[in-house]
Give the backbone structure.
Amino acid sequence: MSFVKEIIAAAVNSAVPTTQLVRMARVAAAQAATPEFQAWLELEVKGYGKRLGREIPPYRRVEGTLLARYPQGWAPVIR
């Protein structure tokens, strides 16, 4: 079985930790010499933000309303 097929099989197996999948992907990216994939994996592992000079991608942003539970029920927290 090729290494890419091993990664795919591991990805659909819920018993395989995400950290193991990321390690496998990093090895595959290094073997394939794909700098863009390697850079993306580094950002996913180390994080995004101003300290790394990269904007947080849209798929990493979460929007919503912060709610607090009061005796009367749930209510939005106003800033």
Remarks:
- The chain has a mean pLDDT of 87.
- The chain is about 45% helix and 10% strand.
- The first strand starts at residue 67 and ends at 70.
- The CA atoms of residues 67 and 77 lie 5 Å apart.
